[in-house]
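Table S2 (continued). Query chain:
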Amino acid sequence: MPRTDTERLPIPAEEWEWFGDPGHFICARWCRFHLCTLVGDYLVSTVGAYVHPRRSGGNEQAEAEWLADNWPGEEIGVGRMYETMVFRAGDTRCDADGCNCGMPIPDNWSELECVGYNMPGEANRGHLEMCQRYAAIDAAMDEEADDE
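Corresponding output:
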């Protein structure tokens, strides 16, 4: 079906906003893998390669040895080593002392969608696929709002 002039295209990747900090998971500070991307009104967060400090006793060498024997770390959920969750982004952005990353803070931490993976490549591809999916969803939601 040909596109009409009023039909919205997905948000292009150049307009996505990337953050260096994880966007969810209470133990995310111990994840070695994290991607977090704002796509329109959606925050897409992927975490994994989780190594809790009890595995190292605060010693980087012990952690590296444990991780070498237990790649890619501990499960972050039942049957998954990595996960991507999507949240509706809130209007407030982080401006906390000592952080000030500017990441949007969801008004509601109930995820809209969650997908699990067991390999880092799957997690990376899954994160990008989820960003593309929500880029299209955001455009469709904008189009519906314009029609009202």
